[in-house]
Amino acid sequence: MSLDFIFRLIGMIVFSTLGVYWGTQLGRLANQDPAVSTFSVEQYAFTIGLVGALVGLILTPLITVRPVRSLRNLLTRISAHSLFAALVGLVVGLLIAALLSFPLSLLPAPFGQILPFVGVLIFGYLGISIFVMRQMDLFTMLSSLTGRGVGGVVPVGTESGSNWAESRTILLDTSVIIDGRIADIARTGFLPGSLLIPRFVLQELQFIADSPDGLRRQRGRRGMEVISNLQKDPSIPVRISDIDVEGVREVDDKLIILARQLRCPILTNDYNLNRVAELQGVPVLNINELANAVKSVLLPGEVINVRVIQEGKEANQGVGYMDDGTMVVIENGKEYLDREVDVVVTKVLQTAAGRMIFARPE
Q1: In what order do the strands lie in the sheet with 284-286?
Q2: What is the pTM of this model?
Q3: What gap in Å lies between CA 189 and CA 205, rounded to an integer?
Q4: What is the chain's pLDDT, residue by residue, as a tens digit (362 residues)?
Q5: Sign of CA dihedral 12, 13, 15, 20
Q6: What sign results for the dihedral spanned by CA atoms 114, 121, 92, 137?
Q7: d(Cα 87, Cα 124) in Å, to the nearest integer?
Q8: What are the residue ranges spanned by the domains of the chain?
Q9: Distance of CA 97 to the CA centre of its chain
Q10: 8 Å CB contact between 304 and 341
Q11: Which terminal Cβ of the chain has fewer Cβ within 10 Å, N or C?
Q12: Cα gap 240→196, rounded to integer Å
């Protein structure tokens, strides 16, 4: 039995009781000077009580359960840092309003009765707004006073500052687990911090591994093997957490909300997730961007050695690849097919799919 249904029953009983009471009172007033077509007291009570039961059955969730659920969903989207800063700001604002309430109450009427209440509203709002906007400054000040990191902010030069990377958390997306390159990148040590895999990401990976499509099933199983290899490596801290985001179904939306709450980046190679997260101010670590960034930087005029492995789209073109996977299109390279040749770089083109190099035989 759902919570909505229980509140509907309670609301139906309460509103029908009120309807019977009001109907009885209205029926007595109407029957003080009754006409031929006037309803009796019992008819008034029954009719209005029935209307009250119907109103309670329909409107009760709209005024009880659903507002509370919406408020809870809103609070889950706000980070713990923001909630703490808002609470401190509210307390400070109310204290200032309480200090000013006595001198304001000495003003002549009606200002003496109105301004203390207005001061509570204004200073409460200002306290919340200011402390939420300056929350990072607040936590930095607290960390400098206590000498310990607060909310992941560790002062430079402290003893715990050398271990700041250990307290950092990186959320893993399903796509980056299936991709598999995360294991090699993590072993290099270029990802300081612990890798966090939420349970809903693991469930989506399991759903892909159980897919009737052979290709999807193979990708899902590869993702499971990647997680297993990460957990076996003692140098890579990996955590699987049961943390979840209620009221949201899509895995990408859950990751964004969770990243905002934990104030941590998302590791992914999903272009759509990357764009949506950036629009919402969530930091993203994209493996594809990393791969493009570490590719060899070549300038026109440099000479490189490439093995021509296939023909190009244009006439007499040959195509080869560098060690990092960069495509090299060779003009008049068809005659060097299945041979290694020294080529001179003529142009370097950066595209959304990666970097392409155009060259000609030396």
Answers
A1: 238-241, 194-198, 169-172, 266-268, 284-286
A2: 0.51
A3: 25
A4: 577 778 888 888 898 999 888 988 888 888 777 776 777 888 888 888 899 889 888 888 888 878 877 877 777 767 777 888 889 999 999 999 999 998 988 888 888 889 999 999 999 999 999 988 887 777 777 766 765 444 444 443 344 444 445 557 889 999 999 988 888 888 888 887 788 898 889 889 989 988 888 888 898 899 899 998 888 888 888 888 888 877 788 888 889 888 888 888 999 888 888 888 888 888 899 888 887 777 777 888 888 888 899 888 888 889 998 877 788 898 888 888 888 989 999 988 876 566 788 998 88
A5: positive
A6: negative
A7: 10
A8: 3-63, 69-133, 169-293, 303-361
A9: 36
A10: no
A11: N
A12: 6
Determine the Cα–Cα distance for residues 268 and 170; give it in Å rounded to an integer.
10
Contact 334, 311 (CB under 8 A): yes
- Token digits of residue 49: 């009580």
Instruction: Calculate ∠ Cα 135-131-193, nearest 5°.
Output: 15
Please give the Cα distance from 154 to 358 (Å, whole number): 48
- The residue count of the chain comes to 362
Kind of pairing between the strands at 169-172 and 194-198: parallel
**Distance (Å, rounded) from C-alpha 346 to C-alpha 359?**
5
Q: Is 158 left (phi over 0), alpha (psi -120 to 50) or beta?
A: beta
Where does 169-293 sit in CATH, by number? 3.40.50.1010
- β strands within 124-192, DSSP E: 169-172
Question: Please, where are the H alpha helices in 180-270?
Answer: 181-188, 199-209, 214-232, 251-262
Q: Give yes or no for a contact between 323 and 295, defined as CB atoms under 8 angstroms apart.
A: no
Question: What is the torsional sign of CA 173, 175, 177, 180?
Answer: negative
Quote the pLDDT of residue 146: 65
- Joined together, the tokens standing for residue 233 give 């490596």
| CATH fold of the domain at 303-361 | OB fold (Dihydrolipoamide Acetyltransferase, E2P) (2.40.50)
Of 148, 254, 119, nearest to 200 by C-alpha is 254
Whole-angstrom Cα distance, residue 84 to residue 299?
A: 52
